[in-house]
Fold:
Amino acid sequence: MITLQACQARDAADPLRGLRDLFSIAPGLIYLDGNSLGAMPKAAAARAAEVVTNEWGRDLIQSWNTAGWFSLPQRLGNRIAALIGAGPDQAVVTDTTSINLYKVLSAAMAIAKQDAPSRRVVVSERSNFPTDLYIAEGLCQAQGFTLKLVEPEEIAAAMNSDLAILMLTHVNYRTGAMHDMASVTAAAHAAGALVVWDLAHSAGAVPVDLLGAGADFAVGCSYKYLNGGPGAPAFLWVNPQHAERFWQPLSGWWGHAAPFAFTPDYQPAPGVTRYLCGTQPMVSLSLLACGLDGFDAAESLGGMAALRAKSLALTDLFIALVEERCQGFGIGLATPRDHSQRGSQVCLTREHAAGGSGAFAIVQALIARGVVGDFRAGDGGVHKDILRFGFTPLYIGFEDVWNAVEHLRLVLESAEWQRPEFNQKHAVT
Ligand SMILES: *Cc1c(COP(=O)(O)O)cnc(C)c1O
Structure:
């Protein structure tokens, strides 16, 4: 039996515990949705006021130079690079994950067309995040490739002589299952294909070693585990061996070699800077720095390795408590138990009789109790409805996990979730 007291003792002994104070989280709120929108670093409010009042309000256009606005995509890219196993000047922060995927997938297609023209298949997972699949579908149509969607266990068999590009999300947004980046990349390369990784649920959540894995391209969000703020620009990484082989198709002036020469023709900037397109949202970019400060603060406490160890301890505890305390309500586990295959989230399923899984309503009932997770609908087939809980080790503690499971138990036991107000859908789930 795991006790509340034991969980409290683990918090008291946790060297990372103090990092929670860097974040604004209402008392009593158990925020298990940092995988969707990270919590606000307290420093972000003052930083936003400074950017708006001083950098914009007072210094106006001079801030492009004096506040360093113009180089923010590169400077922030260098800070994220340190969290994903990339080198300096290999990553930029810009645009959205969807747009960045468009750029890198286009570049990968251009390389494939030149190096392996007979290969015309892009493979991804059917349960990949839809925007990745939509972007790939559109590009495949435009560029004469075929998009093939497979289940995770079919990926190895899809690495054949038709495969041009393997496009995977490292940690699956629905299940929290994590690929072995090094071995999958090596296998794809051995088969003659390029690999594009989406790190949306990896950056800041699990250690990533892009260079060690020899990956080709990567993209990812900064508003999830990196706590950059709603809609904060995304990041993009290109292996230096590919960076200068092609222009990316969104050849805007921020990616020009000399943007202020204002020449009528495009000359791509050296390196990853050519993956920029146009003017970036400076308020939003500036706030991302506050999110990254959290990782700097963690550095002296063991950095990503310590955060990963705590994340696994939190998700192990959540799984153990659910299995101990929520039996008999049809709750199942969609996330792998094996640490090497788990990201920083736990996803539950619910077996049910007629009338739906109840997963949506259970999540709503939990939110009403101050336990914020989210719901992801299944497809009525192999992919079940999911109750999704993200564990950001920077600000989630062991007592939070205990309390979250206790609320889940109460919601299930009382059938509170069947109340009509918990069964109404909203625009954003
Ligand atoms: C969250 C997420 C996105 C979001 O893309 P946006 O362009 O920021 O809306 C994309 N891909 C994956 C895998 C995600 O998890």
In short: The longest helix spans residues 303-325.
